[in-house]
Write a structure and sequence with these properties.
This protein has helices at about 15-30, 45-55, 65-70, 70-85, 120-125, 155-165, 195-205, 215-220, 275-285, 315-325, 355-365, 390-400, and strands at about 5-10, 35-40, 90-95, 100-105, 110-115, 130-135, 135-140, 145, 170-175, 195, 225-230, 240, 255-270, 295, 305-310, 330-345, 370-375, 380-385. The protein folds into 2 domains: about 5-175, 3-Layer(aba) Sandwich (Carbamate kinase); about 255-400, 2-Layer Sandwich (VC0802-like). It is built from 12 helices and 18 strands. The protein has about 400 residues and is α/β, with parallel strands linked by helices. α7 runs antiparallel to α8. The structure holds aspartic acid and magnesium ion (MG). Magnesium ion (MG) binds near residues 9, 151 and 154.
């Protein structure tokens, strides 16, 4: 008998009508003979509202209590979904994180699932019941309620699929699947039928919001195939699995972008060992995430320029730290916070020559200046002026046959 983990995101359970719709999806699965564990998010917007309430009490609201507060969202949807199934004469039961329990490790609001007790739920599945589990939470060694980071229900679903050795893990959401680029911006964007874990990981860390990156990472680590599909249409979704299962007919799978980047250049820094380390160490300590780094060859063997990108929100903090850094000498600090990162991602790139050149040519044909470049085996990213981003996505989407 097939055992499935079905995860329903916030919009999928955003109202009681929608919860009843989800119950119908589960009913169909049960009638076709599958054993179902459903993992649910809180109703859309609910987690944000709870955070807002906590902020009204204090901007530094106690983290242990924040976890107690935030975990309540999923408690609501678990009970409503279970109730909806029971009303349809389907045997169903909800569990809370501490009743299972789902064991986590790490700090409050950012814990990780390390294990889960399976017995009660396994027995219930054997009695042909549908088990409903809250996403996004667990308990610590001390029995305190924890949450595992925003968007964490994806991670719960993957962990449940692993621990229960499920045959499939389906992520139900409000879009049809993973797209070749943002369908809201580029209407010719196409749904991708199959994508590898690596590509999905690149796309989600580059800003495609379909799935939480760390959940994809866990799925990749344990080789748990995923399927992202819509709660609201019957269309086929996107399958995410091991690269060996994919035939690459195209070199590029998707075009991703992020608009909240900034580029900082430090000119006239000394060209000697330790300078880069001394520059970036304090940024790392301040938890500023540095993305691309480019160091020019020094023409006089004495000084050089270092350019790097950070998130736009971190610009002023970064510049302040650089200015206060007594370990580095430089001429000036220049920044541009109106830049965007544009990336092409594709496991087929490895075996296709000329992808880099075609991307650069395409941008030059559109008269778009490249401000910085970084590459990995399956990704090529450039920094460009933010106002060129739409034009650039459209062009790349077309020349790499994705329209
Ligand atoms: N409700 C949590 C959030 O909004 C977890 C999730 O939906 O995945 O972040
Ligand atoms: Mg989500």
């Amino acid at each position: 008998m097939v055992k499935k983990v079905l995860k329903f995101g916030g919009t999928s359970v955003g109202s009681t009508e929608r919860i009843q719709h989800v119950a119908n999806i589960i009913k169909k699965e049960v009638s076709s003979g599958s054993k179902i564990i459903a993992v649910v998010s809180a109703m859309a917007g609910n987690t944000n509202e709870l955070i807002k309430l906590s902020n009204e009490i204090s901007e530094e609201f106690n983290k242990r209590e924040l976890d107690v507060l935030l975990s309540s969202g999923e408690q609501v949807t678990c009970a409503l979904l279970s109730g909806a199934l029971i009303k349809m004469n389907i045997k169903a039961k909800s569990w809370l994180n501490w009743q299972i329990p789902i064991l986590t490790e790490g700090e409050h609001t950012n814990a990780r699932i390390i294990n889960m007790h399976v017995e009660k739920i396994k027995n219930y599945l054997d009695e042909d019941g549908v088990a409903i589990i809250p996403g996004f939470q667990g308990i610590s060694k001390n029995g305190d309620i924890t949450t595992i980071g925003r968007g964490g229900s994806d991670a719960t679903a993957v962990a449940v699929a692993k621990i229960f050795s499920a045959d499939s893990c389906e992520i139900y959401t409000d879009v049809d699947g993973v797209f070749s680029t943002d369908p809201n911006k580029i209407p010719v964007a196409k749904k991708i039928d199959k994508i590898s874990f690596d590509e999905m990981l690149e796309l989600s860390s580059l800003g495609a919001k379909v799935m939480q990156s760390s959940a994809v990472q866990t799925a990749m680590m344990y080789d748990i195939p995923l399927e992202v599909k819509s709660t609201f249409t019957e269309r086929k979704g996107t399958k995410i699995f091991n690269q060996d299962n994919i035939d690459y007919s195209k070199s590029v799978t998707g075009v991703a972008y992020s608009k909240d980047d900034a580029k900082i250049t430090i000119t006239g820094v000394e060209d000697k060992p330790g300078v880069a380390a001394n520059t970036f160490e304090p940024l790392n300590k301040a938890q500023i995430n540095v993305d691309m780094v480019i160091q020019n060859i020094s023409s006089d063997q004495k000084t050089t320029d270092i350019t790097f990108t950070v998130k736009r929100d971190d610009v002023s903090k970064t510049i302040k730290i650089l200015k206060e850094n007594a370990k580095i000498n430089y001429k000036e600090i220049i920044y541009n916070d109106k830049v965007a990162k544009l990336s092409i991602v594709g496991a087929g790139m490895v075996s296709t020559p000329g992808v880099t050149y075609r991307m650069f040519r395409a941008l030059s044909d559109e008269n778009i200046n490249i401000l910085a470049i970084s590459t990995s085996e399956i990704k090529l990213s450039v920094i460009i002026e933010e106002n060129n981003i739409l034009k650039a996505i459209k062009k790349l989407h077309t020349i790499f046959d994705l329209d």
